[in-house]
Design goal:
Elements: H1 2-8, E1 12-18, H2 24-33, H3 47-50, H4 56-62, E2 66-71, H5 80-87, E3 91-93, H6 111-124, E4 129-134, H7 155-177, E5 188-191, H8 207-210, E6 211-217, E7 226-228, E8 232-233, H9 237-245, E9 266-271, E10 274-279, E11 283-287
């Protein structure tokens, strides 16, 4: 991922960071609600429960921010529609909001078009804003609208090629964002919804499968070219972000402020009917099967 690696020098990389689970519907709840994955179900499928979760975007909304969610997926995938209604975003963009000739992938609209729309939205939205964008092109079947860069018909090559495509489009977005008026006052948090068994992370409980990057960028940062080595996880995102604003994070009971003095470094990830805890000097895995 050449652009992502380039941006590390401009931001703060969290390099011992773990996904809470192994699916998008679990990742989004970990990131925005600070709520860990479950071994046999996904809370997003239970509207009565998602209704009562704390939402990071709602905290920003209470502080006068415009909140928006943008993705190229079918809004009915994995009960996202009811989840986003409960989240109370001021605006949601999904696959039906694009010209239908762009709705060409198995999962909806490819990343370059979603990034372009997302950028347009940032230019129109009144500051201050809290915006979320979700990519999808690096998902199997790994078909991307780009001349193949990483050649090979095997699935690993196709996966890496699709990741290259998303990285390229992220780079174009960041390049354009740097030219805007909002860049200087904005924090951009880039992370994955979950890890991947490719290229060499096979095994449902393999911790390498759950290790993902988190990178902070944007003109709002007062330190750059910094790597945070603390073991941390998606459920720490709300607490860590809110701490930067000096806002209360008490609703988010499953996370910690990674950058705080009292931080206890550990990560929990959950797989099908099992869970694991990663600490600095040990790894616990419990597989119920």
């Amino acid at each position: 991922k050449p652009r992502f690696n380039e941006f590390i020098k401009e931001g703060i990389l969290f390099d011992h960071f773990y996904a809470s689970g192994d699916r998008t519907d679990k990742g989004i709840v970990a990131v925005l609600n600070g709520y860990p994955s479950q071994p046999l179900t996904s809370i997003i499928k239970e509207p009565k429960k998602t209704k009562s979760l704390p939402y990071l975007n709602k905290i920003f909304k209470e502080h006068g921010y415009r909140t928006e969610f943008t993705y190229g997926y079918n809004i009915n995938y994995a009960n996202f529609n009811s989840y986003l209604i409960h989240a109370g975003f001021d605006h949601v963009t999904h696959s039906m909001d694009f010209p239908q000739e762009l709705n060409t992938s198995k999962w909806g609209v490819h990343d370059e078009y979603v990034f372009a729309k997302f950028f347009e939205e940032t230019q129109r939205v009144q500051a201050p804003f809290f915006k979320v964008m979700m990519t999808q092109s690096s998902h199997e079947p790994f078909e991307v609208p780009m001349e193949t860069v990483i050649k090979g018909d095997d699935e690993v090559s196709q996966f890496l090629n699709s990741a290259y495509y998303t990285d390229k489009e992220l780079g174009i977005f960041i390049d354009k964002a740097k030219q805007t008026q909002w860049w200087d006052n904005t924090l951009i948090v880039i992370t994955a919804d979950h890890g991947h068994p490719y290229p060499n992370n096979a095994g449902v409980s393999n911790p390498d499968k759950y290790k993902i990057p988190m990178l902070w960028l944007g003109g709002a940062l007062n330190v750059r070219d910094t790597v945070v080595h603390s073991i941390s996880t998606q459920t720490d995102i709300p607490n860590t972000v809110l701490a930067q604003f000096g806002w209360d994070d008490g609703e988010f009971k499953f996370g910690q402020n990674i950058l705080g003095n009292a931080y206890n470094p550990f990560a929990v990830f959950v797989f099908n009917n099992g869970f694991a805890m990663v600490k600095e000097d040990r790894l616990y895995i419990y597989d119920n099967v």
